[in-house]
Amino acid sequence: MKRYIIYIATMIAILNLATSCDETSQEKQRLSYKQRMELRYQDSLALKVGVTPTMDCLPIFVAKERGMFDHDSLQVNLRLRNSHLDLDTLLAGGYIEGAATERVRASKLEAKECQLKYVAETNLGWKFIANKAQRIKKFEQLADKMIAMTRFSATDSLADVAIAKAKVKEGIYKIQINDVKLRLKMLLNNEMDAMFLPQPQATTALLHNHKEIADSAFSRTHVGVIAFRKKAMEDNRRKQQLKSFVKAYNEACDSINKYGIGSYADVIKKYTEADNKTIKALPKLNYKHAK
Questions:
Q1: How many Cα neighbours within 13 Å face the side chain of 233?
Q2: Domains by residue range for the chain, with CATH
Q3: Is-contact 31 79, C-beta < 8 A?
Q4: Within 13 Å and on the Cβ side, how many CA atoms surround 64?
Q5: What is the reported pTM?
Q6: Chain segment 119-153, per-residue pLDDT in tens
């Protein structure tokens, strides 16, 4: 009988413990759900800006990391993606208000009825770099080679210019590689013959002794831009956010131009994953004000 009573008491204790654990788990889920909803709400109020891991976005990174957006109590949430194509998807879907992109991609978006307001031109550019293993030193040696680029973009147009300059009978193949980090990796692994790379990826490639054939200056029609959806900016609160964004962006540009990009090595490393050697080897870059 005594053993039976002990057994019953043990079972009751186990049931109480299980019920308590279940209630605790449910409470955690409720709290977690509330927290998620609060974060989602706060994110909806914030100005969301798409960026890529490239040097043209440095003023945005600096303004975010050095608290320049906070001066006007502006909450800016960045959406970091490895390709402009991914940013297009976010812009077109209304998931972000603006992005650092380039004119060809932006024009494609506007053709799809996503009207944009341009607030800045950036120093986005590309170097045309050939794999050292191919020993390519000029456009005429591109015959039967593969060029990595993104379709319907500045790099696509630049690849057409390069092919035209090559003037070869054999085929030159444009291969769509949208992800800028993957593109660089393919070059370093000898999986691609040539490609267009922005900074800091271009400097990394050069440090690995790959050959620069040209930069995007040979076709000056393509420039980087920062653009926001016009529809989103119709709201008065968004208009004020944009005004504060431009103010902080310009402050960041002034700071970078004054102290040099080396003063922001930690920010560059965080957002682009460039190593110290690449950061030290980067060319001098100048940043223009937004309007």
A1: 19
A2: 46-124+226-281 (3.40.190.10), 127-218 (3.40.190.10)
A3: no
A4: 22
A5: 0.86
A6: 999 999 999 999 999 999 999 999 999 999 999 99
